[in-house]
Amino acid sequence: MAAMPSKTPVSVLQELLSRRGVTPKYELVQIEGAIHEPIFRYRVFLSNELVATGTGRSKKDAKHAAAKNLLDVLTGKMTSEQANQSNGTPGAADITSQVVSPYDDKVMGNPIGWLQEMCMSRRWPPPSYEMEHEEGLPHERQFTIACQVLKFREIGTGKSKKLAKRMAAHKMWQTLQDMPMEGNNLPVVFFSEDDLVGKLSNIQGRYVGLKDSKISKLGSQQSHKVSQFHKTLKNSSGKNLSELQVKSHKIFTVYIFPNFFKPII
Prior knowledge:
Blueprint: H1 9-18, E1 25-32, E2 39-45, E3 51-56, H2 59-74, H3 80-83, E4 97-99, H4 111-121, E5 128-135, E6 142-149, E7 152-158, H5 161-177, H6 193-212, H7 220-235, H8 239-264
Helix pairs in contact: 1-2, 4-5, 6-8
């Protein structure tokens, strides 16, 4: 009876990360060697700190090699530096090296799609793109496009609108990738000062309205149900509940109470 085929490094990495809701990104970085004996170099990354490269005689082999190296980094068998060391081949003088990109902007992969996917995974509004201006002679046009996500704005330039959009998306993706996040929720610093004041003013108005309103008291049966629900909620456990409790307490004590509630009370 034939043995069951073992899982490939790519499938193992995909399975491992899918449990965490993370998708690895693969890029074809270089093609080295003679035309009849090419050597492909792939790069896989999760973040700026978790990157690995791999080479192979085919794209498939190079991709598997990169995935294996990243798995070794995640399991502590290899450092990030070791996983990104150059795996050169003999006869370097006879080797031609070509950086692979379907565009002339030297930006690998699909930054527009990655940025869109990042916004969706973090439950943010999709990125918006706006044409800033174009200049230059008809045969040497230079386009400038702005990309905006929430309060962040990045500018990209290129010889075509497509290239400018890719560059803007690439810069935005890098900016957001390097920024520490607290789960899928936005830290308060993501809002401008005017937005924050407006939100807190709205909370203040609601609080005053509730304080001055005449709300009928709950009956004994209703009070008991509310009390039971509160006790059950306090005794419940879970990652999302814990994060919600910590963030709610932090926002209330640091931002809302000192600035608005103390003067009222």
